[in-house]
Amino acid sequence: MNKRLKAVASLVDGKSIIDVGCDHGYLSIYLTNNGIKCLATDISKYCIDKAIHNFKKYNMNIDTKVTDGLNDIDTSLYDTIIISGMGTHTILRILKDKNLTDTLIISSNNNIELLRKELTKLGYYIDNEIYILENNQKYIIIRFKKGNKDYTDLDYKIGPILKNNKDYINDLINEKKCIIDKIPNKDDVKRIELQDIIKELTKLSN
Ligand SMILES: C[S@@+](CC[C@H](N)C(=O)[O-])C[C@H]1O[C@@H](n2cnc3c(N)ncnc32)[C@H](O)[C@@H]1O
Which residue range is the domain that position 67 belongs to? Predict the structure, then answer.
């Protein structure tokens, strides 16, 4: 398993999970090996066949289902839903109008501010957040729990836990500095906007 999936697994604090969009099934294999009951699902039959092939290879008996998101799944049999490696809009569509577990572990490819805002509206708070850098790619994994907490705009944007993570903040600053270097000279508005963001981030990094 790569560093990203190990980080996802490290946030599991329950006994049973639904691995939505399992693809190769590696996460379910790792978690089953650690005594967690897993249901590995994917919208693609090809992916589920790939996962079943891997389960057989490791001599593991893991439940599988081909389905779009959480359709036709009895979520009450599990304590955690995991969705990793999809975009925020797909993730929100999957979660909409479903009977959701008390814990959600989500790693979205994009639009994480929107993800935090929308899951807060759904009645979840951010219990933990992990940031990892793998192959020069940033990944954020968030564990949401049922309940309410108040958040600031900064919490939604950077993360209530990640705003205290100096590695993350420094990587964000470096990313913005690289973007500034590529802005054409005439685009002063964009440059000033980014400089303001860097100033805000620098305050957090001190
Ligand atoms: C980039 S892979 C991520 C695989 C794995 N979860 C991970 O984090 O490495 C995305 C997977 O989600 C599946 N997928 C996409 N949309 C889905 C949906 N609506 N319901 C279930 N699976 C979906 C794809 O078929 C693919 O296997």
Answer: 3-156
What's the chain's average pLDDT? Answer: 96
Question: Which pLDDT score, from 0 to 100, does residue 47 have?
Answer: 98
Same domain for 152 and 170?
A: no
Q: Is 88 helix (H, G, I), strand (E, B) or coil?
A: helix
* Probe residue for ligand 1, chosen from 86, 89, 98 as the CB with the greatest number of ligand atoms within 8 Å: 86
pTM of the entire structure? 0.95
Task: Answer whether residue 88 shows pLDDT above 90.
Answer: yes
Please tell me the total count of domains within the chain.
2
- Residues 114, 199 share a domain: no
- The residues pairing with 140 across neighbouring beta strands, listed in sequence order, are 131
Same domain, 96 and 9: yes
Rounded to an integer, what distance in angstroms lies between the CA atom of residue 146 and that of residue 196?
35
Give the pLDDT mean for 97-115: 97
Mutate to test the pocket of ligand 1, among 6, 43, 70, 109 (most ligand atoms within 8 A of CB): 43
CA dist 99 → 78, 79, 89, 118 (Å): 11, 11, 18, 16
List residues near ligand 1 (CB under 6 A): 5, 20-23, 41-44, 47, 68-69, 84-86, 90, 94
Q: How far is the CA of 153 from the centre of ligand 1 (A)?
A: 29
